[in-house]
Amino acid sequence: MFDKILIANRGEIALRVIRAAREMGIASVAVHSTADADAMHVRMADESVCIGPPASINSYLSIPAIISACEITGAQAIHPGYGFLSENANFVQIVEDHGLTFIGPTAQHIRTMGDKITAKDTMKKLGVPCVPGSEGGVPDLETAQKIGAEMGYPVIIKATAGGGGKGMKVAQTAADMKMAFRTARAEGKSNFGNDEVYIEKYLTTPRHIEIQVFGDGKGKAVHLGERDCSLQRRHQKVFEEAPGPSISASERARIGKLCADAVAKIDYIGAGTIEFLYENGEFFFIEMNTRLQVEHPVTEAIFGVDLVREQIRVAAGLPMSFAQDDLTINGHAIEVRINAEKLPNFAPCPGRISQYHAPGGLGVRMDSALYDGYSIPPFYDSLIGKLIVHGRDRNEALARLSRALGELIVDGVDTTIPLFDALLAEPDIQSGEYNIHWLERWLENNMAS
Is 207 helix (H, G, I), strand (E, B) or coil? Predict the structure, then answer.
């Protein structure tokens, strides 16, 4: 087992890893920019190293600075959290070249799944159902128009290197194709340095269902059920729950086994998430995230496992501490993402926290790096906390979420807390009858600027 690990991240996810390491008796090293000198993850870690100025490109994305921090502190392994360098295959290779351990999948697995076309081809060969679409990249507008006509509209054009909702444009009709195709390519080029795109059939009322998988890197893998992440704004998740209210036990077992078998065949190591669109009883693969997800706590809640602890264990060469037969769902869990944003436009709202009080009580977990007097810097993502609740069933979880939101105090900046208060009053949310388009339409009708 490692004696010391470095967390190449910040905020609540850095705290999450520090806590898991401490329970395992492992020392932790926090890295931080000058803007994060007073951050909670810096205070909580056993050691800290400043790695650069506020801009991420010069700090949290600076591979030389992170490697140097490992060498200075004697850290043997790096946990990437999510975002930043967590899915950067070159970073993983450099980590390994320096005799360090990357707590996550191999560089090859990240490369394979990081390219949407390669990922789709790989999953097809492994028996995972995929959305109908183009065979590989689409080189030009004329080809795109031909594919759209053959497949039938609507279609969605996606950047092969895309993520976070960038480089994705829907063409509802043939007349929309020119603008959608050019915009998707432009966004791919500007955000990811790659303008290659592909085309898929656009499903009209799907849910976003993701399967949590975990592998030991030696041909064994399990699945930990699904999460429903359908409530999204601009392809960004805001509300996640497990198990999915629309998924039956037999569907869960079928798609879960397919996913576990697929990652076992490629000797995948660590945590991963295979994402699907689900419509009319069918699952269609869209992408795989080769890292820990923001919403991993809802899976931890219903299965009673610590996914970060498990990541560290298998990275150190230990076997998984559970088998598929050990994993039984207990109750229902929901996570809402608390962002420092001003409604109704969701504009980022950095500033000083004048008062912070986390909710508590049975079945309530608050993952946050906030504290009284903390100044949220304007340089990073607006996520400031994740409120997770767990109940014996979905109704209890919803009631617990409502109660916990009422206890949560974040003064000094605007947040998205009022959004969730409003959503919980909606019959569709109470019944679980929603899809990936529901929130956008609700916002248009209820929070128009």
Answer: strand
Residue 328 belongs to what domain range?
207-446
- The residue whose two tokens read 């909670």 is 40
Q: Is pLDDT larger for residue 165 or for residue 238?
A: 238
As a whole number of angstroms, the distance between CA 312 and CA 320 comes to: 10
Domain count along the chain: 3
pLDDT attached to residue 132: 85
> Would you call the peptide bond into 243 cis, given omega within 30 degrees of 0 as the criterion?
yes
- CATH number of the domain that residue 24 is part of: 3.40.50.20
CB neighbour class for 150 (10 Å; exposed up to 12, middle 13-18, buried from 19)? exposed
Cα(168)–Cα(287) distance, rounded to whole angstroms?
Answer: 13
DSSP state of 319: P
For residue 378, is the peptide bond before it cis, meaning its omega torsion is within 30 degrees of 0? no
pTM of the model: 0.90
User: What would you measure as the largest C-alpha separation in the chain, in angstroms?
Assistant: 61
CATH classification at residue 267: 3.30.470.20
The residue annotated as part of the active site, out of 16, 111, 227, 291, is 291
> Which two structure tokens, joined as six digits, stand for 398?
């919803």
Cα–chain center distance at 142: 35
Annotation says 254 is catalytic: no
Q: Is residue 230 very low, low, confident or very high in pLDDT (cuts 50, 70, 90)? A: very high
* Residue count of the chain: 449
Of 37, 71, 92, which one is at a domain's C-terminal end? 92
- 46 Cβ contact list (under 8 Å, min separation 6): 4, 27, 28, 29
Cα(212)–Cα(322) distance, integer angstroms: 14
Q: Residue 164: which pLDDT band, with cuts at 50, 70 and 90? A: low
